[in-house]
Write a structure and sequence with these properties.
Strand content: 15-25%
CATH class of the largest domain: Alpha Beta
Distance between the termini: 14 Å
Helix content: 40-55%
Number of domains: 2
Strand order of the largest sheet: 3-2-1-4-5-10-9-6-7-8
Largest sheet: 10 strands, mixed
């Protein structure tokens, strides 16, 4: 578990922000950076059988022309990906990365990331959708499949000067706090530790334990319990506190679990205006 992997799946500002975030993380973690582009095999198959799609009696020359066009389309897509990776590498060097590596694969995105998982310390990727990237429809599949920390970007990246941990006291949330304390990624950055829910004695004790754990690791922590709707409150508090990153366990045992497993996953990904760090 060594490298930072940046999934350069889009163009323009999206790819640039992914590259900037991955470079930032690579420097903070002192880990190598690999820039990855995956050519989706469903869009660009290596072999195409067109016989059934154009009917009986079709001319052999037409079949050959269609196959040639499909092959040319694949070549152009590979070349576009190569140029994209080359530009990303140049940007990473500008960001201070000494020797960023590039990797282009033809296949399924989730399968490719799973193959790289054993040597992945952090995966950086864009949320897709409105951002114009190809990853949008696969975001939840990636989150479900991989068991590595993931940094999900909503747009332009800026190094966080403050971050907020969404905490619910679950085993996964406790592990997320432990991971934050052990990693250099956010070290030295002030932290808000927030529980959204009722302020019971047990909840207060749970919050105090997490706060003490972070403070023992040298973090400046502001810990609070706030009542309200989990999703809306988290988004509002990120804005109100000026947090540059939202951190949480990828799965929990409260409504935060529903938020990342059920249909409301897309709401958090779509509406957050800051990077989302998911810890497993």
């Amino acid at each position: 578990m060594n490298q930072v992997v940046a999934c350069i799946d889009g163009v323009g500002e999206s790819a640039e922000s992914i590259c900037d975030a991955a470079s930032w993380a690579s420097l903070r973690l002192e880990a190598p950076l690999t820039l990855l582009h995956v050519l989706d095999k469903s869009q660009y198959p290596t072999e195409t059988n067109l016989t059934g799609s154009i009917g009986l009696g079709a001319r052999e020359t037409l079949l050959e022309e269609l196959a040639a066009l499909d092959e040319q389309r694949g070549k152009l897509a590979r070349e576009q990906g190569r140029l994209m990776l080359e530009a990303a590498r140049e940007r990473a060097v500008e960001d201070g990365i000494a020797d960023p590596q590039t990797l282009q694969r033809h296949g399924d995105l989730v399968e490719t990331l799973s193959e790289l998982e054993a040597d992945t310390r952090l995966l950086v990727f864009g949320r897709g959708g409105a951002g114009g990237t190809a990853l949008g429809h696969q975001v939840e599949a990636v989150i479900r499949a991989l068991h590595r920390p993931m940094l999900l970007l909503p747009g332009e990246f800026k190094a966080p000067e403050r971050f907020l941990i969404a905490y619910d006291g679950s085993p996964t949330a406790r592990k997320a706090v432990e991971m934050v304390t052990r990693s250099p990624l956010l070290r030295g950055i002030p932290c808000d530790l927030l529980i959204v829910g009722p302020s019971t004695q047990d909840v207060k004790l749970e919050l105090d334990r997490a706060r003490e754990q972070l403070e023992s690791a040298g973090f400046e922590v502001n810990a609070e319990i706030i009542a309200g709707d989990v999703e809306e409150t988290l988004l509002d508090e990120v804005d109100r506190r000026g947090a540059g990153m939202l951190v949480m366990g990828a799965y929990g045992h409260s409504r935060i679990r529903q938020m990342l497993v059920g249909s409301t996953t897309s709401k958090l990904i779509r509406q957050t205006r800051v990077p989302l760090l998911l810890l497993r």
